[in-house]
Amino acid sequence: MHTDAAAIGTNAGNFDWNEVRFVLAIARNGTLAAASAELAVDQTTVSRRLKALEARLGTRLFEREVAALAHVASDSDARVRGITRITSVDSLIANYLAGLIPDARSRFPSLVLELVAGNRNLDLLRREADIAIRLARPTRGDLVIRRLGTIAFGVYAVPGQAERGMAAASNWLAYDREMMDLPEMRWLQVHVDPARIVFRSNSVDALARAAESGVGHAVLPVVIAARHDGLVRLPATLPVREIWLATPRELRDVARVRVVADWLVACFARDAARFDGAGGGAVEG
After folding, report:
1. Which of 29, 39, 175, 239 is buried most deeply by CB count within 10 Å?
2. CA-to-CA distance for 59 and 10, rounded, in angstroms?
3. CA 213: distance to chain centroid?
């Protein structure tokens, strides 16, 4: 047994088991604020109880033990409760994940999902989110990673512009300069003179709307372009990116995280054709 785990057993009789109630609430809800709301106490009280239990156990590894206890507690209650926070890029949340909420509400009526959109990666290990869906495989941190599939990109324009082809396209749209290292933008830099880029944005939805308004050609994810009836896809072979789901390893057995992660894997497998047109399912990574 690891020395820290042994310490837990040695000190188990030296603390008030009422404090475990506070820690389980944190594990179920993911944040001190949500735990305090469930327990009907202020956040300072929850924080103080947590620190007191940590001091008595003499270890920070108790979080893994608590995650297992939360799993048992949730399963015995036969419900998935609390708040599960999911982060991803804004375009994927707006054009796909938000549309899954009715199904989630039907499946998990006692669970609250929070979708946090942004191009900045939230830190899972600091509990800024419980689940992250990213377009590149995470390479740092103690995470459980699952491959959800792939996302294809294409060049799109309104019909009149599309008929003239890419060579005749005078105006192009692109991500802002901070995002030009992404694979689809590297392709654009190889094939398009920067002087022909007339509009930039860090919002893919803004690029899609501008392209649909006839401003110019744009490189877009197929799942987003499909939502714009006014766009036509031009013949071009662009990079394909992978979609990954990541959760902190210590949360993998927490029911409110585990069931949502499994549900998301199933959703992406079901809707694979919307992302790449080739079908296929998710695999462990």
Report:
1. 29
2. 12
3. 30
CA distance 93 to 98: 6
Q: Which amino acid is residue 215, in one-letter code?
A: V
Given 217, 234, 251, which residue is the final one in a domain?
A: 234
Same domain, 177 and 145: no
Place of tokens 């197929």: 222
- 117 and 223 both lie in a single domain: no
Q: Are residues 165 and 193 in the same domain?
A: yes
CB atoms inside a 10 Å sphere around CB 82:
26
For residue 200, the enclosing domain spans 153-234
Q: Which residues pair with 206 in a beta bridge?
A: none
Q: pTM for this one?
A: 0.67
285 residues of the chain, pLDDT tens digit each? 344 444 444 454 555 667 777 777 777 766 666 676 677 777 677 777 877 777 776 655 334 454 444 444 443 344 578 899 999 988 899 999 999 999 999 999 999 999 988 755 556 656 678 899 999 888 887 889 999 999 999 999 999 888 777 776 689 999 998 889 999 999 999 999 999 999 999 999 999 999 999 999 999 999 999 999 999 999 888 999 999 999 988 888 888 999 999 999 999 999 999 998 443 334 343
Nearest to 119, CA basis, from 162, 182, 186, 198 = 182
**Domain CATH number, residue 29:** 1.10.10
Is 105 in contact with 115 (CB distance < 8 Å)? no
Do 17 and 68 belong to one domain? yes
Return the half-sphere exposure (C-beta side, CA atoms, 13 A cut-off) of residue 7: 13
* Burial category of 155 from C-beta neighbours within 10 Å (exposed 0-12, middle 13-18, buried 19 and up): buried
Distance of CA 110 to the CA centre of its chain: 21
Q: What is the number of alpha carbons within 13 Å of residue 214 lying toward its C-beta?
A: 4
In this structure, are 57 and 99 located in the same domain?
A: no
